[in-house]
Design a protein that fits this description.
By secondary structure, the protein is of the alpha/beta class. It is 48% helix and 15% strand. The protein binds cobalt (II) ion (CO).
Length: 207
């Protein structure tokens, strides 16, 4: 209980701090949200969307799951994308992975992890698509990190292929899909340069 009490105390102090800087912050924010960005990231506690890009509440619409996957049958993720694109009219969808991702690591070993193995199956598919390239690397950490990057690119493609994004582009809606990766070791974000802004534009990602 002591730990949870601490969390409520921290929350009060944070709210006070925010109000000191901007007395109307919560009142204004309660009236509407108007984020320009949808962030699809990993659930990893070390990769908190708002914090690593230093943005206050109200600016990023967030969806997080293990290994930042966009699965075509995942109603949860699709609903987030649909609401973000159709209702909030975000201008950017960012798929952000991170190096050293435990989900990616788990997908590469041959151990059993329980129910989550069904989710990791999708990463194993990405591994299979790029197996020759990945297996050519000797260093285990570098192997995992390359799959972390390739997984981001694959998920960017999945976002672009959703009927939601395809329809938005056909209707002339301004919308860019980006692939980024975060380094937990130094707190730095890297753009993987896979920015897609229309249904026709293709990209090459060559490491
Ligand atoms: Co992760």
């Amino acid at each position: 209980m002591r730990v949870l009490k601490k969390i409520f105390k921290q929350n009060r102090m944070w709210a006070e701090r925010v109000k000191t800087t901007d007395p109307n912050f919560f009142r204004d924010l309660s009236r509407q949200q108007n984020p320009e960005y949808l962030w699809i990231g990993c659930s990893d506690s070390r990769v908190p969307a708002n914090q690593i890009v230093d943005m206050p509440p109200g600016q990023i619409f967030v969806h997080r799951n293990i290994a930042n996957l966009v699965v075509h049958t995942d109603l949860n993720c699709l609903s987030v994308i649909q609401f973000a694109v159709d209702v909030l009219k975000v201008k950017h969808i960012i798929v952000c992975g991170h190096y050293g991702c435990g989900g990616i690591q788990a997908a590469m070993d041959n151990r059993e992890h329980g129910l989550i193995d069904n989710w990791l199956r999708h990463i194993k598919d990405v591994y299979r698509f790029h197996q020759t390239k990945i297996d050519a690397i000797q260093n285990e950490i570098e192997k995992i990190n390359l799959l972390c990057e390739l997984n981001v690119v694959e998920q960017v493609t999945n976002v672009c292929q959703t009927t939601i994004v395809q329809r938005a582009w056909k209707a002339g809606q301004e919308l860019a899909v980006h692939g980024w990766i975060y380094n937990i070791e130094d707190g730095i974000l890297k753009d993987l340069n896979v920015r897609i802004t229309s249904p026709t534009k293709t990209f090459n990602f060559d490491k």
